[in-house]
Amino acid sequence: TASICHVQENVLQRVLQLPVVSSTCETLQRKYSSTKESHPLMASVCEVYERGVQGAGALAMWGMEPVVRRLEPQCESAVAVANNLACRGLDHLEEKIPALQYPVDK
């Protein structure tokens, strides 16, 4: 049965907890790790990419912080409404597509 989103529940957390999504993420993580371990050149390329993504993410957060601080009061209610709508959509999907409750291999 589908669960209703609670105020503190985040739709992204719910999606990541779906068995089909979590098992896919685990499989991708294992494949990524095994590829890095078995191919030294690929490992160095992946490490450079990972550092670049972390740096870009930190820079984006630093640049957005003042904007977010100013918009926070107005955005909070908009985010809550969007999260609520997304959770209701997810409830509907979980109800209509039972396969979301099974790992990828099933």
Automatic annotation (TrEMBL):
Q: Which UniProt keywords apply?
A: Lipid droplet
Cellular localization per UniProt: Lipid droplet
A GO term from the CC aspect: lipid droplet
Which BP terms in the Gene Ontology apply to this protein? lipid metabolic process
Is Iron found in the keyword set? no
**Pfam entry (one):** Perilipin
Q: Which top-level group of life is the source organism from?
A: Eukaryota
NAD recorded as keyword: no
The family note in this entry says: Belongs to the perilipin family.
Name of protein: PLIN1 protein
| Species for this entry | Certhia familiaris (Eurasian treecreeper)
The gene designation is Plin1
